[in-house]
Every structure is written in C-alpha cells, then in structure tokens.
Amino acid sequence: MKTQIILITAIMAFSYSSAQQNPSESMMKNYSKKIDSIVVHEKLKMNKELDLIDKNFNDKKINIDEKQKQRAEIASKYEQSINEKVDAQKSEFEEATREIVKDAVLRPRDTLKAGKNQLLFGLGGIKMRMDTDKKTPKDYLSSWEYSVALVGTSYTLKDKPFTFYDKNSDIKNVVFNSSSFAVRYENQLCGFTSPVFYRLGVAYRWDQVKPKYGQVFTQDNNALGIKDFTKGNLKETHLDNHYIFVPVDFRFVLNPKYIEYDGVKYLDNKKSQFSIIAGVYGGVRVASNIYNKYSNEFSNRIVERERLTHGVNDFVVGGKLGIGYAGFNIFVQKDFTPTFNNNANLTHKYGLQIGIELLNVNF
Questions:
Q1: From start to end of 254-339, where are the E strands?
Q2: The pTM is what?
Q3: What pLDDT does 4 receive?
C-alpha cells in the first residue's frame, strides 16, 4: 500500500508543471489583457445607459420608436469609443509583434526545452524527470533523485557469502520480502565530459524475515531462535527489521553521449545511457519486531506483536553493485556485517539482496 501511494503521488506531481514565457509572449499577453479591459469597461458603461432607456420606456416616458432610436445612438457611441481606445494601444501591439518576429528569426531554438519533463515506463518500473527549471546541459549534470526499490533478501553463511536462496537455511526463501526508499544527490566528477558521477543520500530499508512453514521466531533466555508453533492454526508470521542508511555510490556511464552548448562540450545527461553503479552503505537499526497471526478454538483472528530485544545487530555495513539504463536499475548488495549476532540460534546470518528500482523521480 505504501508503494502504491508513492507511485500515485509521484505521477500526480509529475502531471503538474508551469509553462515559462519569453518576453515577447508576455508583451502580447499584456496587450490582450488591456484590450479585454477596455471592452469590458466600455460595455459596463453602455449597459447602464441602456438600462436607463429601458426604465424610461417601462415608465411610459418614451415610446417604442424613441427607445430604439436612443439604443442605436448609444451603441454607435460606445463602438466609436472602443475603437478609439484600441487604436491608442496600437503602438504596444506593433512592438509586441516586432519582438515575436525578432525572436522567431534571430533567437536560437531551445534544444533543451523538449522533453524537460519525461515519464517513462519499462520493465524496471517508472522513471520520471521533472526538469522544468533546467536550462543548460550543465544543469542536467547534477540532480536530486527519489527512488523506490523492491528487494528480495536471503541470508547466507559466513564462508558462503553469495549463495542465493540456500535450501539449507533455517529461514524461508522469498522472492520479494524487502523494500527500500532513498533520497540522494548526484553530481559529476572530473569535468563536464567525465562519465563518472557520485551519489550521496539517506535511505530507509525494511527487511522482512520469515521462518519455514509451521515455525515462528521466539525470544527465550535472551536468545533469538525458531521453533514449531503450538498455539493454534498459524496464518502469518515474520520478523521485521527497520534501518536508516547512508549510501555512497559511484555511477560509471558506459556509452557516454555529448552535446555542445555555447562552445563548451558537455556529457548529455538527458540521453538514455547504460551505467554501472558501485557503492557502499552504512546503517543503523531503528526497530525490530516479531509478528504472529493465528486462530484457535476461541478466536479466528489473534495477533501478537513482540518487540525484538536480542539476536539482531544494531549496525550494518555493506557494498552494492548494479547496472542501469535510463533510470531502470537492477542491483545486488551484500551486508559485510551479520544481521544476526551471537545471541541468535540461526545458521544463516549474513544478508544478501537482489533488487529492482520500481520508481525513480529525478528533480
């Protein structure tokens, strides 16, 4: 549900943008407003006089012929007045027209304007660019980005750090059981044509761990373990770990494309490019809890929530490697420190994740 809300909010935010006007367009708009104001003002005055004629007719002070004659005279008077006042504004209209022609002939075409705001759908999810304020290629070389990733987390042995979904693990293997949300700043390294970028950010990660069928996590004698569930019919169980991370990434563009602007060559960061992402991260655990939902002979829905006090490390450090195209990223990240400490009676303690970024919003 959280991911759906984020997607809907981001799409609504993307759909709203304000157009930028050049000076000549602004002049023409001001001229149009003045003409509208003249017409409205004169028509208000005319309608007051016509209302007075109608009142005199209703009071039988004038006959129908006199009424029609007076109405025609008033309409002719205000038509002449409007034309005179509009003619007085001709100089402003001519100036605005000259500026529009000048812009069309002399001003270079804004090659960056097209596609400033983009919405792309792909196998990796949704990529959005909200770049209304960016004017030159240099502006596109730094940005803020919000990303949402769906992640599959498994746990490994210390001497087998890259064994995905080990069948011998005492933890259930689930394809997607975690998610992460990150806000990060990206900027270019080593000059305008460099294919290397760095990223700094803050991220939230939620890992959900499930024991194998019919078992639950328990805290007994200051130790975290897994045992068979005996209270009734187990419907759902998991252990949740919540982290705040500081990720540091480097992005290497594999097929850089370039653009020249005002005599300077830039890497064209608007183009869709293949990239390799490598980085490290460090985080602190902010909360952990055990959740069990079951039924028994007395109730169809019993929920137990228990705060975890033993068996999980408070700090996590790891590394990340990924590949991306146009904002759609697939990555693998490995926790160098164990998720579970010596107070956990578990065989597989080191987190290993594979994820895909579902949403990227670039500002």
A1: 258-261, 264-267, 274-295, 302-307, 315-325, 328-335
A2: 0.65
A3: 45
